[in-house]
Task: structure prediction
Amino acid sequence: MQGTLVEGILKAAASNDDQQLIMPVSEIGDEKNELLFFFKPECFLFDDETHTRAIIEMSLKKLDENKVKVCGAVFFSGNALASLEIMDKHYGYINSMSKTASTSVGENDVKAMKEALNINPAENLPVLGGHEFLKLHPEMNDATLDALWATKKSLRLRSGFYYQAFQIGEQQVIMVNGFHPAQLSHFTKDGRKIVLLVLRSDADWATLKNNLVGDTFPEKADPASIRGELFKNNAKYGVESVTIANNFAHLSAGPFEAYYELNNFLARSTVANYSITQSLVYNKLKSQGLTEELILKPISNPSIKIDSKISDLFSCTENKDTSEAIVVYTQLFK
Result:
């Protein structure tokens, strides 16, 4: 099957289609985990398919080695990802803050940022998300903004909220998620493409994250993982560098994140003929006797409180197997 899938992926990537169903999503079996994986745009930016083929063949071989089954495959162009707003939803809070920081950042957050940046609390500085900044400064683009953002070490207010102060001409601004316009356009601009795989396995989730795909920072990745292999043998695959921003593969961090991602990508697709009711997590939650509202609630990544600390469902179930994640969820919400 691997050879057929490789050819299907390469054929889809060489087409002018915005979407293509490479392999229909099969019915769930008795595997304990269902994950979403995709080959990122950098896999398809070579002048010919030789290196793309090598990366895909290597990755699929590692799926086999880790006893992971491919149970569906869909191709998306950058145009489709943009028009369906799939990547906007994929990046969630990061995207929202990049586009709405000027109106959505509260007084307490502004106060905390000014304090960390040693800015006079009384100074009235504009707070702008990366996308908002570009609208006000048409002389710049996502690449030049990304270069500006990289000149300083960004600070983190909370997950998905990064900021720094910049002097723009005579005006100082506090910028939020200035890296995100380039991050988003990497997926959505003309000519970009990804291939999504639905994976199922009895292997532990944490093992798959570490051994199959590898650390987000490729230099820290297990050398036997996909990212580790690309990092140590980058020249073999025709790759100039493998970095956190250019790491070739994505894998869901946990069962509820996968639940959300399957819905975001596949239910929005016009070719996948997919419903979230086909997913493993939906059916596991249904078997618990939960209402439809509670079955679908995890897709919104609800906030939770654990040991007096505010977190979210995706974060607190990251790297957990599906059964364990569902126990956590039902204890919190049932």
User: Anything to note?
Assistant: Residues 86-104 form the longest helix (19 residues). Residues 284-333 form one domain.
